[in-house]
Design goal:
The protein has helices at residues 2-10, 18-27, 34-49, 64-69, 71-91. With 102 residues, the chain is mainly alpha-helical. Helix 2 packs across helix 3 (34-49). The longest helix has 21 residues, at 71-91.
Length: 102
């Protein structure tokens, strides 16, 4: 989860820093030059680094032995995390969340 947040903030490409990409894309008309997009993309990444991040713990981590042996428990926690993200996006009507594959 932490890596995913850091990728949104520090990712070197638009497919890694997807939040910065979405914000920069929304600010530019398709006719703008690539350099203008890159400048905005880098500016948005910088702005995201200045944001505060809150982590919500809503399940107990599995011990490493159970995590490696019980894939169902591992997948259950991942599914809970993904559904929680969708819930938050809908609840707060976030502008830049998309659940389409890249």
């Amino acid at each position: 989860m932490i890596k995913r947040i850091l990728d949104h903030q520090k990712g070197s490409t638009s497919s890694m820093a997807t939040l910065a990409h979405r914000i920069a894309k929304d600010k530019h008309h398709p006719s703008f030059k690539e350099d203008a997009y890159k400048e905005t993309f880098n500016s948005e990444k910088k702005s995201l680094l200045e944001c505060d991040v809150s982590l919500v713990k809503f399940y107990e981590p599995l011990d490493s032995d159970k995590y490696t042996k019980d894939k169902r428990a591992q997948h259950k926690q991942e599914i809970e995390l993904y559904l929680f993200e969708v819930y938050i996006a809908v609840k707060f009507k976030t502008l830049h969340n998309s659940f389409r594959t890249h």
